[in-house]
């Protein structure tokens, strides 16, 4: 089955959480169905969901017999312990022959290449594809379809399609996130449950209070977005260059999914048959009456602002598909001696890394302004990263300021950082900066695949930022082969997985060891709450200046910084601090220790740098130095290192998969 409008294919893509649901959905008015297998996909929270290997094979055959397509999600990040499992799984999928797999981790592309497989690949929304350079890079890697960033508007998709010819897939209905794809680390650092690995506990749907300037604002659920709803905009989707219209809902029941398929399928057919006489609102009331939340068109027509935030059905704190509680506000775990000793014991079981004999450990510092940069240089930082997402009220680094800092830097290395999300205009702006007269810098910190492709040939060494989400040696090798000289480990890595990556990575590795990194990076502007609503109370911020917006629960306050591009960065309430683990990190093979310094005063930053430099020079003094360092914010946390990670689960899953695969032979 296939639909066409004026020669353009239009695919209605439906979800299925179980094989029983699939058998009903595939017979409905859709063109394709996507589903997950027994592991390595983004919907692993609900027991009894996803397909067995036997069911995957049968589902593909059923779809093909009906002239429809079947896509399998292999769309979470992989740790070292899951690479062998992934290889076996991909070999199986090659034989099962789905029409494509949907992928987030570049390790999967590397495995496909190494194994000589020919499985068609679609990029997941978790790749956060948002510019031409990223699409062109993926095309060169053999990817045949891109699921666009959730924040991409239809004017941009139309331009992207025209410029690249790539097939585009776009979410048209269902549960959305308020954070850029693969840029939410909240669940990992608070619960040890990664949203990039299919286990998000939804802190975005907690009951928060918004505070700023000493006032409290009435915004109980400021991160809880409405459900996507594009039913009345079929013409805009078709003419926006979208090939595949994607319904979210792998956790939904059969009746609900069939209702959506029937409504959207009918609308597409009616538009194709009679575009001028198309009635947009035919089944609007049906969909509205059966909604799980209120509706929004999200970013399809530009930034939606507060109209994208859901109020009516929040407050239950529950999965709407299961009735189970997501999670309740939870305090970030305090750094404790017991957990430090556990990590040291876990890591002592590993042999020292071959890289642990590095002659000199180095310290990098990410800064927000010139004064911080100068303080970091004087305090002994080895690498200074000039932010590409400068927090207000500071301004973006000018060329003159870069030259001014370069004149002072001596042996310190100076880098320009790129924004985490890069529009076409930002590519042109940075291309102008980096293609003109050579800058007196030592490298560029890259934040997305498109930036790697665009700037690898400009003559500046590239450093991969933490939001590249390097989780395993294969993704590290992928970026290294693309021209990235040093990579930053994902800050989601629990202790055992970080140790495994550092031991196996084929490139020099860096890791965040101190500061307030952004747990959520979002287009949504929380500051609008303070501009639209009248305050309902007065209360000072507990740990940051009142000029900084904070989201407050009874468990703590998370500062939110707005950058010069208007994007918001929600940070930890506590400070990440790995100072007492410097010796162990050195033995594990970490070469560059990174401080996120953008939120500190120059004096605070200098104190922190001095402590770390002393520890890097004398690792056996790390715990003594930690004891004398006082937190600036609400205390210290080990972040994701508080948690044990998934090595045991990975080994169990691998054994089960291998047994099932053997049974298929």
Automatic annotation (TrEMBL):
Entries under Pfam families matching the protein: Peptidase_U32
InterPro entries for the chain: Peptidase_U32, RNA/ubiquinone_mod_enzymes
UniProt name for this protein: Peptidase U32
Organism: Paenibacillus antibioticophila
């Amino acid at each position: 089955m296939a639909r066409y409008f004026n020669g353009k294919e239009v695919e209605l893509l439906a979800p299925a959480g179980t094989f029983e649901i699939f058998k009903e959905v595939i017979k409905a008015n859709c063109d394709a169905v996507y589903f997950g297998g027994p592991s390595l996909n983004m919907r692993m929270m609900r027991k009894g969901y996803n397909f067995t290997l036997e069911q995957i094979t049968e589902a593909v055959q059923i779809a093909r017999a009906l002239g429809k397509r079947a896509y399998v999600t292999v769309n979470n990040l992989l740790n070292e312990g899951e690479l062998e499992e992934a290889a076996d799984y991909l070999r199986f999928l090659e034989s099962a022959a789905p029409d494509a797999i949907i992928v987030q981790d570049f390790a999967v592309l590397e495995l496909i290449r190494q194994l000589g497989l020919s499985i068609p690949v679609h990029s997941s929304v978790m790749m956060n594809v948002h510019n031409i350079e990223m699409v062109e890079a993926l095309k060169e890697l053999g990817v045949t379809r891109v699921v666009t960033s959730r924040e991409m508007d239809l004017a941009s998709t139309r331009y992207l399609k025209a410029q690249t010819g790539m097939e585009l897939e776009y979410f048209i209905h269902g549960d959305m996130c308020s954070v850029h794809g693969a840029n939410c680390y909240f669940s990992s650092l608070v619960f040890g449950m990664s949203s990039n690995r299919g286990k998000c506990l939804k802190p975005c749907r907690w009951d928060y209070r918004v505070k700023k300037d000493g006032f409290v604002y009435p915004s109980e659920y400021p991160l809880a977005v409405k459900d996507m709803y594009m039913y009345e905009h079929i013409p805009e989707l078709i003419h926006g260059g979208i090939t595949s219209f994607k319904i979210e809902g792998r956790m939904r029941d059969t009746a609900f999914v069939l209702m959506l398929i029937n409504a959207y399928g009918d609308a597409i057919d009616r538009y194709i048959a009679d575009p001028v006489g198309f009635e947009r609102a035919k089944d609007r009331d049906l969909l509205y009456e059966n909604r799980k939340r209120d509706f929004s068109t999200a970013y399809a027509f530009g930034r939606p602002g507060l109209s994208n935030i859901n109020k009516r059905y929040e407050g239950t704190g529950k999965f709407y598909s299961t009735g189970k509680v997501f999670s309740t506000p939870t305090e970030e775990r305090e750094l404790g001696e017991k957990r430090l000793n556990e990590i040291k014991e876990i890591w002592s079981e590993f042999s020292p890394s071959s890289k642990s004999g590095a002659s000199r450990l180095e310290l990098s510092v990410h800064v927000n302004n010139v004064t911080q940069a100068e303080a970091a240089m004087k305090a002994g930082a080895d690498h200074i990263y000039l932010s590409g997402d400068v927090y207000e009220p500071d301004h973006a680094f000018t060329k003159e300021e870069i030259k001014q800092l370069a004149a002072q830097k001596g042996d310190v290395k100076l880098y320009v950082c790129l924004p985490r999300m890069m529009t076409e205009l930002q590519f042109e702006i940075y291309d102008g900066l980096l293609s003109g007269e050579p800058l007196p810098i030592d490298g560029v910190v890259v934040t997305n695949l498109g930036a790697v492709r665009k700037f690898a040939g400009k003559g500046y060494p590239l450093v991969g930022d933490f939001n590249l989400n390097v989780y395993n040696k294969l993704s590290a090798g992928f970026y290294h082969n693309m021209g990235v000289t040093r990579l930053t480990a994902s800050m989601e890595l629990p202790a055992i997985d970080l140790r495994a990556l550092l031991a196996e990575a084929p490139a020099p590795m860096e890791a965040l060891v101190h500061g307030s990194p952004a747990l959520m990076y979002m287009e949504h502007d929380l500051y609008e709450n303070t501009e639209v609503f009248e305050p309902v109370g007065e209360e000072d911020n507990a740990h940051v200046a009142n000029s900084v917006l904070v989201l407050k629960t009874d468990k703590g306050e998370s500062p939110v910084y707005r950058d010069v591009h208007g994007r918001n960065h929600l940070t930890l309430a506590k400070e990440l601090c790995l100072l007492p683990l410097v010796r162990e990190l050195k033995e594990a093979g970490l070469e560059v220790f990174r401080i996120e310094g953008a939120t500190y005063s120059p004096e605070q930053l200098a104190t922190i740098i001095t402590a770390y430099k002393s520890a890097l020079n004398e690792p056996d003094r790390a715990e003594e130095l930690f004891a004398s360092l006082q937190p600036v914010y609400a205390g210290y946390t080990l972040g994701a290192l508080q948690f044990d990670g998934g090595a045991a689960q990975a080994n169990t899953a691998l054994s089960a998969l291998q047994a099932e695969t053997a049974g298929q032979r």
